[in-house]
Specification:
The protein has 482 residues and is an all-alpha fold. 84% of the residues lie in helices and 0% in strands. It has 2 domains: 1-232, no CATH class; 241-482, no CATH class. The protein is globular and about 70 Å long.
């Protein structure tokens, strides 16, 4: 099914606009709250949350058995199938909740931290709550009704952020983070079922769910491998370094990833839905994929390289002196985040055209290579883990990207051509800012230095764009205006 070009483009852009607006409003409150909460809590609190979060992520990625992606990807799906899918997903969530209660002592023993037991058992409520809103949320995405989705997301973020901040002020410690997260899931469960009501109806027959299971299990396999890839550094650091160093590493990684983690889900949600609706038109998918790569690379390299350059002043001002130990890890991780961001752009196209095994194999490759790297890197502490990202991940990215591009018959040179300029210009900007740091700017106040770095970095990159990529500048100007 291929939609009419102009109307389809309008729906995609409106969907992205709603998600962007919703994310901006919600994240404005969330970021301010998060920064203040970090100042109130300790590395130990965030280390505990990272330990609990790694286990929760393992259980959560199997929670819906990939049915959410199956609902979005299918051209036609009946209401009876949706009721059957809800039944299976709810039973799976209930099973995950019970299993978490039973095996939590093993997790606590693995990390040597008994306080994890009540924390994980409380957070396991999210498995049931997520099962309650999976189907209505997936339908909103499938129908590109991102307006209602954005509204629910904004409300859940704002309520949970405010609650977390209040509890942190009241000295709840790590429990402020846990209660805030469960609150977010509860609000979403109510909100999505109001926005897209009628699917909390369990049925006995499961034939409709079964025929969607094959695609869903491929998604689940990919998510499981992604869990191993994305959480292996956290698990290894928690086991061998302890909760305090883990807290430093986790905050550095989270802070470095904030811009990409808040923007990329918007792009991947909309692109997966859009690609699924035009899955028979591979040439159209390739054209739009290259546009997305161009846009992400254009902004990601200067943004993250600039964050690395300004980190000493920025972290001291925003988080306070007790977090100065995360400056160097933060800087190192910022250097690789743009490449990591680009790696997220290909899977939506691969899934949409019905070739999920390409992504599954890619994630298996990533897990093995990065897992071995982290086991070696942890011997050198937090900085060793960061160096694995810088030295090893680009190799993984190159291997998996070439496999994905082959799957959609897109030449690697076309893909690479879209990122050569932003990488080169971003690197030139970074080197200029590092030379500036060695000048008299070091004698200024942190706020003055930070402002100089931001203004100078933006000016250098803008000059390079106007001089060498004026057409790209005009393209983005027209896109933003539209």
């Amino acid at each position: 099914m291929v939609s009419d070009g102009s109307s389809f483009k309008s729906r995609v852009l409106k969907g992205f606009a709603w998600l962007s607006a919703g994310t901006f409003v919600g994240q404005l409150v969330t970021w301010l709250s998060t920064i203040y909460v970090i100042r109130l809590l300790s590395p130990s609190d965030y280390g505990m949350m990272a330990m609990a979060g790694s286990f929760m992520a393992l259980m959560a990625m199997m929670n819906d058995l990939g049915f959410s992606a199956a609902i979005i990807q299918k051209n036609v799906i009946e209401d009876e199938e949706l009721h059957q899918i809800f039944t299976v997903v709810f039973l799976t969530g209930l099973f995950a909740f019970i299993l978490s209660w039973l095996i939590t002592p093993i997790v606590a023993w693995f990390y040597g931290e008994g306080r994890l037991e009540p924390l994980i058992r409380f957070m396991s409520l999210n498995f049931i709550l997520s099962a309650l809103f999976m189907v209505p949320q997936s339908l909103l995405v499938r129908e590109m009704n991102f307006r209602d989705k954005a509204r629910v997301d904004i409300i859940s973020r704002m309520i949970s952020s405010v609650l977390t901040l209040v509890l942190a002020i009241l000295s709840f410690g790590v429990w402020a983070l846990a209660i805030g997260e469960v609150c977010s899931y509860a609000v979403r469960a109510v909100g999505f079922n109001i926005a897209r009501a009628g699917y909390l109806k369990p049925v006995m027959g499961l034939k409709g769910a079964t025929k969607n299971l094959k695609f869903g299990l491929s998604i689940t396999a990919d998510r499981f491998l992604y869990f191993l890839f994305s959480q292996s550094d956290i698990v290894i650091a928690g086991k061998f370094l302890g909760k305090d160093p883990l807290g430093i590493y986790a905050i550095a990684l989270n802070l470095a990833s904030i811009p990409s983690e808040k923007v990329l889900p918007l792009i991947t949600q909309v692109s997966f839905t859009a690609y699924s609706r035009i899955q028979e038109d591979i040439e159209r998918i390739k054209r739009n994929l290259l546009k997305t790569v161009r846009a992400v690379g254009f902004f990601a390299f200067p943004l993250f390289f600039g964050m690395a350059a300004a980190a000493p002043e920025g972290i001291s001002l925003i988080l306070g002196p007790k977090w100065e130990s995360l400056i160097v890890p933060f800087q190192l991780l910022c250097l690789v985040i743009p490449v990591k961001a680009l790696s997220y752009l290909l899977p939506p196209a691969i899934f949409a055209i019905g070739k999920p095994m390409i992504n599954v194999v890619n994630m298996a490759i990533s897990c093995v290579i990065m897992g071995v790297g982290f086991l070696v890197g942890v011997n050198f502490g937090i900085l060793g883990l960061c160096m694995v990202w810088i030295l090893v991940f680009p190799i993984v990215f190159l291997i998996t990207t070439m496999r994905s591009l082959k799957g959609i018959t897109l030449p690697f040179k076309d893909f690479a051509a879209e990122i050569v300029f932003p990488f080169t210009a971003g690197t030139s900007m970074l080197l200029s800012l590092l030379m500036l740091r060695a000048s008299a700017v070091m004698n200024l106040s942190p706020l003055s230095s930070l402002l100089i770095y931001v203004i100078t970095g933006a000016a250098i990159y803008s000059i390079l764009v106007v001089a060498f990529r004026a057409s790209a500048f005009q393209e983005f100007k027209v896109m933003l205006k539209g």
